[in-house]
C-alpha cells in the first residue's frame, strides 16, 4: 500500500517533527488537575462573554442601537426647539400686540414659546407670506373679528397661544365696556384639583414606565434571542458538542451560555438606559425620568428574571435546530411570545392584568406595573418572582434534555415533542 | 483498565450493540475494527457517556465508570469539529478547563503538544484559516488534553495526511508505552496490523473475535506452503491433513490443530527433495474478512 506517498499540502504548514519526544507521556508531567477548579458553567459563561465582546456583529449592533438612541434624543431636542419658535405675519400694530401677548401667556404657563412678528403691507401680502411658508401663521383683524391663517393646516402653538391672547384681550375690553374688571368676571370660574392617593403613581406614569420596560424587554429579546439560539446550535453544527458532552453535563453548558448571554444583554440595556437618561437630562425632560425612576426597582428585578426565562426559551429553541439556518424557524414561537409580552404588558389592565402578572414572562411587565400602581400586597410580587424562577429552572432542565437527545440527531431539525421522545 | 461487560444499546427496536464485552488493558494498543454500522461508534459513545447504555456495565479499574473518570479520558469523536472562528490555542485551553484543568498548565501543555504536531506557529490562528490537514492535527491535540488515563479514538487516522498518520501512530505508541490503555477504531487494517497489540472485531453489533493479533492469527488450523518442485496431491492421504490445495510446485496444506508439521516434512522428504515448508500466517485483513463474512 502506498500510504507513504506525499500528498501536496494546501498551505505552508510545516511537517511535524515526529521524532521529538517533547510531550512523552512517560515523563511525569505536573498534574494539571486542581483539587477544585471553577464550575464548568462559569467557564462556559466567561467564554461566551469573551467571544461576544470580540464579535464584530455584536459590537456593531450595540453601536448602531446607541446611535439610534442618541439620534432620537437629538431629533426630539431639535423638534422641541423648533416647534416652540414661530413667525406670525401681521398687517397692523394691534395684531402685533396680540402676538406679543400670546408669547407672554405661554411663558407664564412655563412653555418655551417664541413668537416673532413679521410686518406686511397688506392682508394679501400676509396671505402670500403664509402660503410661501416664510411665516407659520398670519393674524388679521377684518370686519371686527380676528382670523388666524395657516397654510395647509393650523399651527398648534399659534392656535393655542394667540387664541388665548385674543380671548384674553377681548374679555378685558368687554369687561371694561361693561364697567367691571377681569377679576370680577372670572370670579368663581377657577377649578381646584386635589389628588386623593398621592402615594400611588399616576396612571399615566404607570403606563409610561410599563411601556418603557416593555419596549426594553422586546429590544433585549431581539438582540439576545437569536444570537443565543445561534450560539447553541453552532456547537451542535460544528460537532464540538460531542467533545464537550464527554467533559461536562450539557446542563452546565446551557446554563453557562444562558448566564453569559443574560449578563451581556443586561450590560447592553444598562448602557442604553444610561445614554437615554443622560439624553433626557440634557433635553430637560426630567419629568419622564422621575416617573420612570419611581418604578425602576421592581421593574429591574422582574426584568432580570424575565430575561433569564426568555434566554432559557431561546436556548431550548436553538437546541432543536440542526443548522444555524433552522434557528429562524425554531425561534419563531419564542419571538411571538416576546412580542405578546410587550403588547399585553402595555395594553392589559384590571382583572386581566392581575392574572397575567402571575404568569412567567407576562409578569415581567405587568407585575411591576401593578406594584407601581399600588394595587398589590407584598406577597404578590414575591409569588410571581418565585413562579418565574421555577419556570426558568424547568425550562433549563427540559431544554438540556432536549439538547442531549437532539445532540446526535444531526441529520434533521426536530420538534420539541420529537426531541423529548428520543432516548438518551 | 477499561472493561465492558454485556453492553447493550437499542435504538427503538433496532439493537445496535448486542452484549458486547471486551477489555482495553493498560500499556496496550487495542484496535477496534468492523464494517460501517457494526456498532463501534455507538460503543465508544457509551464509553464516553455521550450516549446512555440500554444495559450492561462499563468498568474503569474495576469500578463502574464515573463522570469524573471520564473527564480524564481523551476522546476523539467520529464527527470531528471545533470552533472555526476561535484561535487554536484558546479553544484547546477552553476544552482543557472544562475537563477541570487550570488554565496556565493546560496552556503550557497544549503549546508543547502543538509544537509536537508542527502547529506551534499556528497557535494564535483561527481554526478556519488552517488547512484541512492541520485542522485534523488540532483535533488530535483536543483528544490529548491534560494527562489522559485512557484514550478512546474513533477513526483517528481517517482524513490524516501521511505525515500526520505517522505522528498519530507514534503518539499512540508513546501513550500505550506509558501505560495508558488506548482504544481506537479504524478501517485501515494494514495500520491496525502494524500498530495493535490487541484486536476487537465487531460485526452487526456483536464481538466476533478478540485477543492479541497473534492469538487471532493462530486460533485456526495451521496452514503450510509445501514446495517440492512438483504437484504434491499425495499429502491428501495423510491422516492429519484436513484440507489441501494442489499447486504446480507443491501444495497448500491445512493440518489438524496441535499436529506436528514434522510428520508432513518427513513424508515429503521420503518422497523426494523438499525446497521449503513455510507456515502461512493470515493477515489481519484475512482474519477480519473471514470473521465478518459469516
TrEMBL record, chain A:
Pfam families: ABC2_membrane_3. The keyword tRNA processing does not apply. Keywords: Cell membrane, Membrane, Transmembrane, Transmembrane helix. Residues 56-399 form the ABC-2 type transporter transmembrane domain. The chain crosses the membrane at residues 57-79, 210-233, 254-278, 298-321, 333-352, 382-403. One of its GO terms (cellular component) is plasma membrane. The keyword Membrane applies. GO terms for molecular function: ABC-type transporter activity. It is a multi-pass membrane protein. Residues 1-38 are annotated as: Disordered. This is Sodium transporter.
Automatic annotation (TrEMBL), chain B:
It comes from the Bacteria. Belongs to the ABC transporter superfamily. GO terms for molecular function: ATP binding; ATP hydrolysis activity. The keyword Nucleus does not apply. This is ABC transporter ATP-binding protein. Gene3D superfamilies: P-loop containing nucleotide triphosphate hydrolases (3.40.50.300). Keywords: ATP-binding, Nucleotide-binding, Transport. The keyword Nucleotide-binding applies. Coiled coil: none annotated. PANTHER family: ABC TRANSPORTER, ATP-BINDING PROTEIN. Residues 2-229 form the ABC transporter domain.
Amino acid at each position: 500500500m502506498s500510504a507513504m506517498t506525499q500528498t501536496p499540502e494546501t498551505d505552508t504548514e510545516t511537517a511535524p517533527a515526529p521524532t521529538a519526544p517533547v510531550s512523552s507521556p512517560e515523563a511525569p508531567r505536573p498534574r494539571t488537575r486542581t483539587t477544585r477548579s471553577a464550575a464548568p458553567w462559569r467557564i462556559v459563561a466567561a467564554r461566551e462573554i469573551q467571544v461576544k465582546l470580540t464579535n464584530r456583529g455584536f459590537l456593531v449592533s450595540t453601536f448602531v442601537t446607541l446611535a439610534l438612541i442618541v439620534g432620537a434624543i437629538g431629533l426630539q431636542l431639535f423638534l422641541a426647539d423648533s416647534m416652540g419658535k414661530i413667525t406670525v405675519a401681521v398687517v397692523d400694530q394691534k395684531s402685533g400686540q396680540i402676538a406679543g401677548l400670546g408669547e407672554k401667556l405661554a411663558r407664564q404657563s412655563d412653555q418655551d414659546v417664541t413668537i416673532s412678528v413679521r410686518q406686511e403691507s397688506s392682508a394679501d401680502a400676509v396671505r402670500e407670506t403664509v402660503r410661501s411658508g416664510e411665516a407659520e401663521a398670519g393674524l388679521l383683524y377684518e370686519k371686527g373679528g380676528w382670523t388666524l391663517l395657516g397654510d395647509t393646516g393650523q399651527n398648534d402653538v399659534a392656535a393655542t397661544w394667540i387664541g388665548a391672547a385674543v380671548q384674553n384681550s377681548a374679555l378685558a375690553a368687554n369687561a371694561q365696556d361693561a364697567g367691571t374688571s377681569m377679576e370680577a368676571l372670572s370670579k368663581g370660574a377657577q377649578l381646584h384639583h386635589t389628588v386623593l392617593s398621592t402615594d400611588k403613581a399616576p396612571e399615566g406614569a404607570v403606563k409610561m414606565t410599563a411601556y418603557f420596560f416593555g419596549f426594553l424587554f422586546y429590544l433585549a429579546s431581539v438582540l439576545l434571542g437569536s444570537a443565543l439560539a445561534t450560539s447553541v446550535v453552532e456547537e451542535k453544527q460544528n460537532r464540538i458538542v460531542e467533545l464537550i458532552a464527554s467533559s461536562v453535563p450539557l446542563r452546565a453548558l446551557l446554563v453557562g451560555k444562558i448566564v453569559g448571554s443574560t449578563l451581556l444583554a443586561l450590560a447592553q440595556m444598562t448602557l442604553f438606559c444610561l445614554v437615554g437618561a443622560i439624553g433626557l437630562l440634557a433635553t430637560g425632560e426630567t419629568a419622564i425620568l422621575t416617573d420612570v425612576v419611581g418604578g425602576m426597582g421592581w421593574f429591574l428585578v422582574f426584568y432580570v428574571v424575565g430575561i433569564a426565562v426568555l434566554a432559557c426559551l431561546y436556548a431550548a429553541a436553538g437546541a432543536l435546530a440542526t443548522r444555524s439556518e433552522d434557528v429562524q424557524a425554531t425561534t419563531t414561537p419564542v419571538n411571538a411570545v416576546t412580542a405578546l409580552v410587550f403588547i399585553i404588558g402595555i395594553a392589559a389592565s384590571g382583572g386581566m392584568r392581575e392574572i397575567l402578572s402571575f404568569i412567567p414572562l407576562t409578569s415581567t411587565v405587568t407585575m411591576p406595573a401593578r406594584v407601581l400602581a399600588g394595587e398589590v400586597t407584598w406577597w404578590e410580587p414575591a409569588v410571581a418572582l418565585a413562579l418565574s424562577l421555577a419556570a426558568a429552572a424547568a425550562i433549563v432542565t427540559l431544554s438540556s434534555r432536549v439538547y442531549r437527545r437532539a445532540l446526535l440527531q444531526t441529520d434533521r431539525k426536530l420538534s420539541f415533542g420529537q426531541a423529548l421522545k428520543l432516548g438518551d | 483498565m477499561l472493561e465492558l461487560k454485556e453492553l447493550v444499546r437499542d435504538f427503538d427496536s433496532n439493537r445496535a450493540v448486542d452484549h458486547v464485552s471486551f477489555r482495553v488493558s493498560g500499556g496496550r494498543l487495542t484496535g477496534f475494527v468492523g464494517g460501517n454500522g457494526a456498532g463501534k461508534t455507538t460503543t465508544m459513545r457509551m464509553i464516553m457517556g455521550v450516549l446512555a447504555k440500554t444495559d450492561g456495565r462499563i468498568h474503569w479499574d474495576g469500578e463502574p465508570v464515573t463522570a469524573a473518570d471520564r473527564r480524564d479520558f481523551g476522546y476523539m469523536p467520529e464527527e470531528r469539529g471545533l470552533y472555526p472562528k476561535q484561535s487554536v490555542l484558546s479553544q484547546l485551553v477552553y476544552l482543557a478547563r472544562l475537563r477541570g484543568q487550570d488554565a496556565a498548565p493546560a496552556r503550557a501543555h497544549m503549546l508543547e503538544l502543538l509544537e509536537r504536531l508542527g502547529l506551534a506557529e499556528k497557535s494564535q490562528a483561527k481554526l478556519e484559516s488552517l488547512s484541512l490537514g492541520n485542522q485534523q492535527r488540532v483535533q488530535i491535540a483536543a483528544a490529548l488534553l491534560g494527562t489522559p488515563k485512557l484514550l478512546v479514538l474513533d477513526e483517528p487516522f481517517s482524513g490524516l495526511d501521511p505525515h500526520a498518520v505517522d505522528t498519530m501512530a507514534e503518539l499512540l505508541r508513546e501513550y500505550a508505552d506509558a501505560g495508558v490503555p488506548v482504544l481506537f477504531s479504524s478501517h485501515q487494517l494494514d495500520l491496525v496490523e502494524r500498530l495493535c497489540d490487541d484486536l476487537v472485531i465487531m460485526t452487526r453489533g456483536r464481538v466476533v473475535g478478540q485477543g492479541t493479533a497473534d492469538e487471532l492469527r493462530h486460533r485456526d488450523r495451521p496452514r503450510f506452503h509445501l514446495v517440492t518442485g512438483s504437484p504434491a496431491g499425495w499429502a491428501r492421504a495423510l491422516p492429519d491433513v484436513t484440507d489441501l490445495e494442489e499447486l504446480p510446485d507443491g501444495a497448500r496444506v491445512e493440518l489438524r490443530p496441535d499436529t506436528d508439521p514434522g510428520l508432513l516434512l518427513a513424508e515429503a522428504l521420503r518422497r523426494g527433495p523438499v525446497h521449503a515448508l513455510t507456515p502461512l500466517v493470515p493477515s489481519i485483513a484475512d482474519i477480519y474478512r473471514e470473521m465478518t463474512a459469516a
